[in-house]
Design brief:
With 91 residues, the chain is an all-alpha fold. The protein contains 2 helices and no strands. It has a domain of 31 residues.
């Protein structure tokens, strides 16, 4: 038989205190690093200089590109698809 060092109510208090201190440490850590930490001068945002982009439009002058045509349009039916009342059962 195991020896029970702590009573049930003492065990609950100890677990509650441990959870409380863990949450307190997390709260203080977040408080310091999100709000109270002094800002450094190195975190200034510097604008980025982008390279100029050159687009080669010579593709549109090639004969292979000029031969491309749009696809043929689908033929439209003259009859209206479907039934007059689609909710009536088939006979």
């Amino acid at each position: 038989m195991a020896i029970d060092i702590f009573k049930e109510e003492n065990r609950r208090q100890i677990v509650s205190l441990i959870i409380f201190f863990i949450l307190l440490i997390i709260f203080l850590y977040l408080l310091y690093y999100l709000f109270l930490r002094p800002s450094s001068e190195e975190t200034k945002i510097t604008p980025r200089i982008y390279k100029k982009v050159k687009v080669d439009f010579s593709l549109f002058e090639k004969p292979k590109f000029k031969k491309i045509s749009s696809p043929p349009l689908p033929e439209l039916r003259e009859e209206k698809p479907g039934r007059e009342n689609p909710f009536i059962p088939f006979e």
